[in-house]
Automatic annotation (TrEMBL):
<feature type="coiled-coil region">
    <location>
        <begin position="108"/>
        <end position="163"/>
    </location>
</feature>
<protein>
    <submittedName>
        <fullName>TIGR04211 family SH3 domain-containing protein</fullName>
    </submittedName>
</protein>
<keyword id="KW-0812">Transmembrane</keyword>
<feature type="transmembrane region" description="Helical">
    <location>
        <begin position="168"/>
        <end position="189"/>
    </location>
</feature>
<keyword id="KW-0732">Signal</keyword>
<keyword id="KW-1133">Transmembrane helix</keyword>
<dbReference type="InterPro" id="IPR003646">
    <property type="entry name" value="SH3-like_bac-type"/>
</dbReference>
<keyword id="KW-0472">Membrane</keyword>
<dbReference type="Pfam" id="PF08239">
    <property type="entry name" value="SH3_3"/>
</dbReference>
<dbReference type="InterPro" id="IPR016476">
    <property type="entry name" value="SH3_dom_pro"/>
</dbReference>
<keyword id="KW-0175">Coiled coil</keyword>
<feature type="domain" description="SH3b">
    <location>
        <begin position="29"/>
        <end position="95"/>
    </location>
</feature>
<dbReference type="GO" id="GO:0016020">
    <property type="term" value="C:membrane"/>
</dbReference>
<feature type="signal peptide">
    <location>
        <begin position="1"/>
        <end position="19"/>
    </location>
</feature>
Amino acid sequence: MIRKWLAVALFACSCQALALQESDTLEASSSHYIRDDLFIFLHTGPGRNYRILGSVEAGTPITVLDRDADAEFTQVTDDEGRKGWVESKYVTTEMSQAEKLPILSEQLAQSQTSLQTTQRENANLRQQLNDARQQITQLTTDTEQQSNDIKRLSAQVESADKDELVTWFTRGGIVAGAGILLGVLLTYLPKKRNRSKEWM
């Protein structure tokens, strides 16, 4: 049984990438995880020859407690409260996919909500813009109509002024002509004779 576990451990070790570089002095931290592409064994000491306490699945959040002198093994506490040693190269500070997924899903939902809100606001703004354009068109039409009315009324007033001026000139001419005619007629009327002159 131990040989089988050792064979699995050796196979897992041969398939992994280079070890992550970390400082020699580590404080206890839960911002570490077991890499997502494997499961590893939890040993009782800093080496493969120590007894295996169990396996830790990929993406499991762990608390880093210590590191051995060669920095090949890291002492951790897993999510079940088990305390043991794992190979340092399988410890990462990158959040596991299992924990990323709900966060990314929430961010996606927020982005979709924000997008829908923005789309509604854009639709409202487009409607307001269309309404404003229609109002501008209506106001332009009304302004042109009022300008035409002003021109027409101005022409009517000017024509009325001319007609009134002609009327005044005509009436003045008639009055003047009548006065002249009356004056001429008065000169031709026979004068009354003075009675005192008749007796002389």
